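dude i think i finally got it to work??
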Amino acid sequence: MIIDGKDKQLIALLSTNSRESTAKLARLLGMSRTTVTSRIERLEKRGIITGYTVQFSEDYERGRIQAQVMISSDPKSSAHIVRSLKDISAVRALHAVNGIYEMLAVISAESTQHLDQVLDQIGNIKGISKTTSSIILSTKFSR
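look at this
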């Protein structure tokens, strides 16, 4: 999908703060509020913007255990695995990757005990043959 420079700027601003007021977005972009509202609606209708999310503060994130889990699986089970992982609220994201693993799950757990329980849940999903986990010690930057 082709989007113009103003749409890219708008997306960047919304990525930083999706709750920013239309009036402030309009000021930052040098547009009218009506134009900004129309552009947002158009981006939503075209499926470029599919939703809005919450970003947690660094203090909140520091209090949680973040991990990446590389998942090796039977390709015939991928739809079942994706559905099962989607039902685990600690799984914040799931990516298809290339290489010796097929998927990468990003986990956010309350404690190491909670992370251990989540890893057990993941390991028990039918079709998953192997997992390798890495705890994220710190985030140098995030966009």
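The first strand starts at residue 65 and ends at 73.
im so relieved honestly
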